[in-house]
Amino acid sequence: xxxxxxxxxxxxxxxxxxxxxxxxxxxxxxxxxxxxxxxxxxxxxxxxxxxxxxxxxxxxxxxxxxxxxxxxxxxxxxxxxxxxxxxxxxxxxxxxxxxxxxxxxxxxxxxxxxxxxxxxxxxxxxxxxxxxxxxxxxxxxxxxxxxxxxxxxxxxxxxxxxxxxxxxxxxxxxxxxxxxxxxxxxxxxxxxxxxxxxxxxxxxxxxxxxxxxxxxxxxxxxxxxxxxxxxxxxxxxxxxxxxxxxxxxxxxxxxxxxxxxxxxxxxxxxxxxxxxxxxxxxxxxxxxxxxxxxxxxxxxxxxxxxxxxxxxxxxxxxxxxxxxxxxxxxxxxxxxxxxxxxxx
Length: 344
Description:
Distance between the termini: 45 Å
Number of strands: 0
Structural class: mainly alpha
Radius of gyration: 24 Å
Number of helices: 11
Strand content: under 5%
Order of helices and strands: HHHHHHHHHHH
Low-confidence stretches: 9-22, 169-173, 230-243, 283-293
Largest sheet: none
Helix content: 55-70%
């Protein structure tokens, strides 16, 4: 006769379930949350910022002497161009929307995994659920997150830049290309590794930028929590407890996210400029055809840009990038944190 378990014995078995299994299940759920919430936040942010990003790429990738005098002139010429006016500013958005979902979800996912890894490696770090790591540890986690994400992001940004900069080797407008056409062209000319052209620039920008992005957000958020009044946050905000940190008020989240966006884009903008020029060089080179052009390295492209345009050239398009990144980053963090707080 089969043995039967009492109600108490069943309860004991449930309570004493294998913690490793429960941890794996929890980690799987957290992965789904990171991917879903990060994707939604990234797509919404990209829809807002994409026209400004198009102008930034065109300013960064223009030949010398420049054909645009500044962001406003680039915007004006884009509106009156025969390529679609305002529609041209959204050219190639399909790849960036896909990229934004991958980038943002990868950033948040890698950021959380990096924190868990550091806690496992360094036992002196806070280990309780809901406890925040020291700011310097969070900055390192942000850098790791950016490095991982750069590998996924470079091919997507390569296609995006080629679609955003519609100038032929002769300097005239090209026929509008589709993402599939660009992908086929890159593969035909450079093979599979051609999609990672500009990887060093993306790696520098994403590693340093993500460290600044997460570090600035966590630092500003910690400042808001530290000086919050008891009525502003109804629960205990002592980071030495194992109680999960409460959500900040929306305006605090927006301010922290906006400051993070500014830090991310300004500090490592020259690396992004060099990367954009590398990824569009065959479109703007008039000396040789794209098929036979000798590819420049990251450092050679940077030295050439510096010798031609100096520091101003390195930061060309930075103003409009910072202007759009502040609200975009604020929206991304607010949506992600909001979904986290709502779903749990």
